[in-house]
Amino acid sequence: MIEYPETGPSRPLDPLLDAALGPRPARVPLDVERLESVDCGSYVREKVSYAVTADQRVSAYVCVPKGADGPLPAVFCHHQHAGQFHLGKSEVVGLAGHPDQAYARELAERGFVTIAPDAIGFEERNWSPDGRSNVCWFELSSRLVRGRTLLASCLHEVSVALDHLVSRPEVDPNRLGFIGHSYGGRTALWAPAFDHRITASVSHCGCIPYRYSLTHDTGVQAEFVLPGFAAAHDLEDVLARYGPASLLISATTDDRWSRGAEELFAGARRSLGDRVELAMYEAGHVFTAPMRERAYAFLRQRC
To answer: 58 by DSSP, 3-state: which?
Structure first.
Protein backbone atom coordinates (compact mmCIF):
# COMPACT_ATOMS: atom_id res chain seq x y z
CA MET A 1 0.00 0.00 0.00
CA ILE A 2 1.35 3.43 -0.93
CA GLU A 3 1.57 5.78 2.05
CA TYR A 4 0.98 9.51 1.68
CA PRO A 5 2.00 12.03 4.34
CA GLU A 6 -0.53 14.19 6.12
CA THR A 7 -0.46 17.43 4.20
CA GLY A 8 -1.81 20.93 4.02
CA PRO A 9 -1.62 23.90 1.69
CA SER A 10 1.78 25.55 1.24
CA ARG A 11 0.30 28.92 0.24
CA PRO A 12 -3.23 30.35 0.16
CA LEU A 13 -5.31 29.44 -2.87
CA ASP A 14 -8.48 30.99 -4.22
CA PRO A 15 -11.34 29.48 -2.13
CA LEU A 16 -12.91 27.77 -5.15
CA LEU A 17 -9.68 25.99 -6.11
CA ASP A 18 -8.85 25.21 -2.50
CA ALA A 19 -12.23 23.53 -2.00
CA ALA A 20 -12.08 21.67 -5.32
CA LEU A 21 -8.54 20.34 -4.97
CA GLY A 22 -8.65 19.47 -1.29
CA PRO A 23 -5.53 19.10 0.88
CA ARG A 24 -2.24 19.45 -0.94
CA PRO A 25 1.04 17.63 -0.31
CA ALA A 26 3.41 19.46 2.02
CA ARG A 27 6.49 21.10 0.54
CA VAL A 28 9.76 19.44 1.46
CA PRO A 29 13.41 20.26 0.63
CA LEU A 30 14.19 19.47 -3.00
CA ASP A 31 17.29 17.40 -2.21
CA VAL A 32 18.32 17.42 -5.89
CA GLU A 33 20.59 14.71 -7.29
CA ARG A 34 22.16 14.91 -10.76
CA LEU A 35 22.02 11.44 -12.29
CA GLU A 36 23.56 12.08 -15.70
CA SER A 37 24.62 14.80 -18.09
CA VAL A 38 24.63 14.33 -21.88
CA ASP A 39 25.99 16.75 -24.47
CA CYS A 40 23.31 17.05 -27.18
CA GLY A 41 25.08 19.57 -29.37
CA SER A 42 23.26 22.86 -28.88
CA TYR A 43 22.17 21.96 -25.35
CA VAL A 44 23.03 19.71 -22.42
CA ARG A 45 20.44 17.21 -21.23
CA GLU A 46 20.62 16.43 -17.53
CA LYS A 47 18.68 13.79 -15.70
CA VAL A 48 17.90 14.88 -12.16
CA SER A 49 16.01 13.48 -9.20
CA TYR A 50 14.28 15.52 -6.50
CA ALA A 51 11.81 15.04 -3.66
CA VAL A 52 8.13 15.87 -4.16
CA THR A 53 6.97 14.59 -0.76
CA ALA A 54 8.72 13.28 2.33
CA ASP A 55 8.77 9.76 0.87
CA GLN A 56 8.52 10.19 -2.91
CA ARG A 57 11.09 11.30 -5.47
CA VAL A 58 10.65 12.16 -9.14
CA SER A 59 13.16 11.97 -11.96
CA ALA A 60 13.11 14.57 -14.72
CA TYR A 61 15.10 15.68 -17.73
CA VAL A 62 16.38 19.25 -17.72
CA CYS A 63 17.66 20.62 -21.04
CA VAL A 64 19.98 23.64 -20.83
CA PRO A 65 21.06 25.56 -23.96
CA LYS A 66 24.81 25.89 -24.44
CA GLY A 67 26.54 29.21 -24.89
CA ALA A 68 23.48 31.40 -24.35
CA ASP A 69 23.58 34.48 -22.19
CA GLY A 70 21.54 33.90 -19.07
CA PRO A 71 19.36 34.04 -17.24
CA LEU A 72 17.09 32.27 -19.72
CA PRO A 73 13.33 31.67 -19.92
CA ALA A 74 12.30 28.20 -18.78
CA VAL A 75 9.37 25.98 -19.73
CA PHE A 76 7.73 23.02 -18.00
CA CYS A 77 7.05 20.46 -20.76
CA HIS A 78 4.25 18.06 -19.82
CA HIS A 79 4.04 14.79 -21.74
CA GLN A 80 0.91 13.37 -23.35
CA HIS A 81 -1.21 10.42 -22.17
CA ALA A 82 -2.20 8.31 -25.21
CA GLY A 83 -2.65 5.28 -22.93
CA GLN A 84 1.13 4.77 -23.19
CA PHE A 85 2.04 4.48 -19.54
CA HIS A 86 5.57 3.32 -20.31
CA LEU A 87 6.29 6.76 -21.82
CA GLY A 88 6.59 10.12 -20.13
CA LYS A 89 9.57 12.44 -19.88
CA SER A 90 11.54 10.46 -22.49
CA GLU A 91 9.05 11.31 -25.22
CA VAL A 92 9.16 15.09 -24.80
CA VAL A 93 12.96 15.14 -24.93
CA GLY A 94 13.01 12.96 -28.05
CA LEU A 95 14.45 9.74 -26.62
CA ALA A 96 11.37 7.62 -27.34
CA GLY A 97 7.88 7.80 -28.78
CA HIS A 98 6.61 10.15 -31.49
CA PRO A 99 9.01 12.81 -32.80
CA ASP A 100 6.19 15.39 -32.89
CA GLN A 101 6.06 15.19 -29.09
CA ALA A 102 9.69 16.24 -28.57
CA TYR A 103 8.91 19.84 -27.67
CA ALA A 104 11.25 19.93 -24.66
CA ARG A 105 14.15 19.19 -27.02
CA GLU A 106 12.99 21.68 -29.64
CA LEU A 107 12.50 24.47 -27.11
CA ALA A 108 16.00 23.85 -25.72
CA GLU A 109 17.35 24.15 -29.26
CA ARG A 110 15.58 27.53 -29.41
CA GLY A 111 17.13 28.91 -26.24
CA PHE A 112 14.75 27.84 -23.47
CA VAL A 113 15.69 25.82 -20.41
CA THR A 114 13.16 22.99 -20.25
CA ILE A 115 12.11 20.52 -17.58
CA ALA A 116 10.23 17.29 -18.26
CA PRO A 117 9.29 15.04 -15.31
CA ASP A 118 7.27 11.84 -15.35
CA ALA A 119 3.68 12.41 -14.27
CA ILE A 120 2.23 10.09 -11.62
CA GLY A 121 1.77 6.62 -13.12
CA PHE A 122 3.95 7.14 -16.20
CA GLU A 123 7.35 5.80 -17.28
CA GLU A 124 9.59 5.38 -14.20
CA ARG A 125 6.57 6.04 -11.97
CA ASN A 126 4.46 3.22 -13.37
CA TRP A 127 4.56 0.55 -10.66
CA SER A 128 2.46 -2.08 -12.49
CA PRO A 129 4.13 -5.49 -13.02
CA ASP A 130 4.51 -4.92 -16.77
CA GLY A 131 5.32 -1.22 -16.47
CA ARG A 132 2.60 -0.42 -18.99
CA SER A 133 -0.74 -0.80 -17.21
CA ASN A 134 -3.00 2.00 -16.02
CA VAL A 135 -2.36 2.65 -12.33
CA CYS A 136 -3.85 6.16 -12.36
CA TRP A 137 -7.32 5.06 -11.25
CA PHE A 138 -5.73 3.52 -8.15
CA GLU A 139 -3.79 6.72 -7.59
CA LEU A 140 -7.10 8.59 -7.80
CA SER A 141 -9.30 6.27 -5.72
CA SER A 142 -6.74 5.83 -2.93
CA ARG A 143 -6.80 9.60 -2.50
CA LEU A 144 -10.54 10.12 -2.88
CA VAL A 145 -11.41 7.78 -0.03
CA ARG A 146 -9.30 10.01 2.22
CA GLY A 147 -10.76 13.29 1.00
CA ARG A 148 -7.93 14.11 -1.39
CA THR A 149 -7.62 14.46 -5.15
CA LEU A 150 -5.07 13.28 -7.69
CA LEU A 151 -5.08 16.71 -9.35
CA ALA A 152 -3.84 18.34 -6.14
CA SER A 153 -0.82 16.01 -6.24
CA CYS A 154 -0.22 16.62 -9.94
CA LEU A 155 -0.32 20.40 -9.60
CA HIS A 156 1.86 20.26 -6.50
CA GLU A 157 4.46 18.41 -8.56
CA VAL A 158 4.34 21.09 -11.25
CA SER A 159 5.18 23.65 -8.57
CA VAL A 160 8.02 21.53 -7.24
CA ALA A 161 9.48 21.28 -10.76
CA LEU A 162 9.28 25.08 -11.00
CA ASP A 163 11.06 25.28 -7.64
CA HIS A 164 13.92 23.34 -9.19
CA LEU A 165 13.99 25.56 -12.26
CA VAL A 166 14.16 28.81 -10.30
CA SER A 167 16.93 27.37 -8.11
CA ARG A 168 19.15 27.08 -11.19
CA PRO A 169 21.45 30.01 -12.10
CA GLU A 170 20.63 29.62 -15.82
CA VAL A 171 16.91 30.39 -15.27
CA ASP A 172 15.15 33.74 -15.11
CA PRO A 173 12.56 33.21 -12.33
CA ASN A 174 10.32 35.87 -13.88
CA ARG A 175 10.02 34.05 -17.23
CA LEU A 176 8.43 30.66 -16.61
CA GLY A 177 6.29 28.90 -19.19
CA PHE A 178 4.27 25.72 -19.57
CA ILE A 179 3.41 23.63 -22.61
CA GLY A 180 1.54 20.38 -23.07
CA HIS A 181 -0.31 18.25 -25.61
CA SER A 182 -3.45 16.25 -24.73
CA TYR A 183 -3.02 15.33 -21.02
CA GLY A 184 -0.35 18.00 -20.90
CA GLY A 185 -2.74 20.42 -22.59
CA ARG A 186 -5.32 19.85 -19.88
CA THR A 187 -2.76 20.47 -17.17
CA ALA A 188 -1.65 23.62 -19.01
CA LEU A 189 -5.08 25.14 -18.27
CA TRP A 190 -4.89 24.43 -14.53
CA ALA A 191 -1.23 25.09 -13.71
CA PRO A 192 -1.25 28.93 -14.03
CA ALA A 193 -4.22 29.13 -11.64
CA PHE A 194 -2.35 27.00 -9.10
CA ASP A 195 1.10 28.58 -9.44
CA HIS A 196 1.17 32.27 -10.30
CA ARG A 197 4.85 32.15 -11.23
CA ILE A 198 3.83 30.86 -14.68
CA THR A 199 3.82 33.75 -17.15
CA ALA A 200 2.76 31.90 -20.32
CA SER A 201 1.01 28.60 -20.94
CA VAL A 202 0.21 26.64 -24.11
CA SER A 203 -2.66 24.14 -24.04
CA HIS A 204 -2.72 22.01 -27.19
CA CYS A 205 -5.50 19.51 -27.94
CA GLY A 206 -6.62 19.37 -24.31
CA CYS A 207 -9.05 22.22 -23.75
CA ILE A 208 -12.33 20.27 -23.52
CA PRO A 209 -14.55 21.68 -20.73
CA TYR A 210 -16.23 19.34 -18.25
CA ARG A 211 -19.63 20.05 -19.84
CA TYR A 212 -18.44 18.42 -23.07
CA SER A 213 -16.63 15.54 -21.34
CA LEU A 214 -19.70 13.59 -20.23
CA THR A 215 -19.84 11.43 -23.35
CA HIS A 216 -18.68 7.89 -23.94
CA ASP A 217 -16.02 8.90 -26.43
CA THR A 218 -14.41 11.41 -24.07
CA GLY A 219 -15.10 10.97 -20.36
CA VAL A 220 -13.19 12.60 -17.54
CA GLN A 221 -9.53 11.65 -17.16
CA ALA A 222 -8.64 10.31 -13.71
CA GLU A 223 -6.32 13.20 -12.94
CA PHE A 224 -9.14 15.73 -13.39
CA VAL A 225 -11.84 14.05 -11.31
CA LEU A 226 -12.91 16.63 -8.72
CA PRO A 227 -16.01 15.59 -6.76
CA GLY A 228 -18.83 18.08 -7.26
CA PHE A 229 -16.79 20.62 -9.21
CA ALA A 230 -18.72 20.42 -12.49
CA ALA A 231 -22.09 20.80 -10.78
CA ALA A 232 -21.66 24.56 -10.73
CA HIS A 233 -18.25 25.31 -12.30
CA ASP A 234 -16.14 24.67 -15.37
CA LEU A 235 -12.79 25.58 -16.89
CA GLU A 236 -13.73 29.23 -17.36
CA ASP A 237 -13.79 29.49 -13.57
CA VAL A 238 -10.26 28.06 -13.43
CA LEU A 239 -8.93 30.50 -16.03
CA ALA A 240 -10.46 33.38 -14.07
CA ARG A 241 -8.08 32.47 -11.20
CA TYR A 242 -4.91 33.06 -13.23
CA GLY A 243 -2.18 35.30 -11.96
CA PRO A 244 -0.21 37.23 -14.62
CA ALA A 245 -0.16 34.34 -17.09
CA SER A 246 -1.03 34.54 -20.77
CA LEU A 247 -2.67 31.51 -22.40
CA LEU A 248 -2.63 30.05 -25.90
CA ILE A 249 -5.54 27.67 -26.53
CA SER A 250 -4.29 25.59 -29.45
CA ALA A 251 -6.95 23.26 -30.82
CA THR A 252 -8.01 21.26 -33.87
CA THR A 253 -11.36 20.78 -35.58
CA ASP A 254 -11.34 16.97 -35.70
CA ASP A 255 -10.16 16.26 -32.17
CA ARG A 256 -12.63 15.28 -29.46
CA TRP A 257 -10.32 16.66 -26.77
CA SER A 258 -10.58 20.10 -28.46
CA ARG A 259 -14.37 20.29 -28.25
CA GLY A 260 -15.56 23.63 -26.97
CA ALA A 261 -12.30 25.44 -27.78
CA GLU A 262 -13.95 28.53 -29.26
CA GLU A 263 -16.48 28.67 -26.44
CA LEU A 264 -13.73 28.38 -23.83
CA PHE A 265 -11.74 31.09 -25.59
CA ALA A 266 -14.74 33.44 -25.53
CA GLY A 267 -15.17 32.82 -21.80
CA ALA A 268 -11.46 33.29 -21.14
CA ARG A 269 -11.52 36.64 -22.92
CA ARG A 270 -13.85 37.96 -20.24
CA SER A 271 -11.25 37.37 -17.50
CA LEU A 272 -7.93 37.44 -19.37
CA GLY A 273 -8.63 39.94 -22.13
CA ASP A 274 -5.84 40.03 -24.70
CA ARG A 275 -3.74 37.69 -22.57
CA VAL A 276 -5.53 34.73 -24.17
CA GLU A 277 -5.14 33.69 -27.81
CA LEU A 278 -6.77 30.97 -29.89
CA ALA A 279 -5.14 28.95 -32.66
CA MET A 280 -7.50 26.62 -34.57
CA TYR A 281 -6.31 24.06 -37.11
CA GLU A 282 -8.08 21.77 -39.59
CA ALA A 283 -6.63 18.54 -38.20
CA GLY A 284 -7.05 15.72 -35.70
CA HIS A 285 -5.29 14.91 -32.44
CA VAL A 286 -1.82 15.87 -33.67
CA PHE A 287 0.90 18.38 -32.85
CA THR A 288 2.54 19.14 -36.18
CA ALA A 289 5.62 21.25 -36.79
CA PRO A 290 3.62 24.39 -37.81
CA MET A 291 1.45 24.04 -34.70
CA ARG A 292 4.52 23.72 -32.51
CA GLU A 293 6.20 26.72 -34.13
CA ARG A 294 3.11 28.81 -33.37
CA ALA A 295 3.28 27.62 -29.75
CA TYR A 296 7.00 28.40 -29.50
CA ALA A 297 6.46 31.90 -30.90
CA PHE A 298 3.79 32.50 -28.25
CA LEU A 299 6.16 31.38 -25.49
CA ARG A 300 8.96 33.52 -26.91
CA GLN A 301 6.69 36.58 -26.93
CA ARG A 302 4.83 36.05 -23.65
CA CYS A 303 7.26 34.18 -21.43
So the answer is: strand
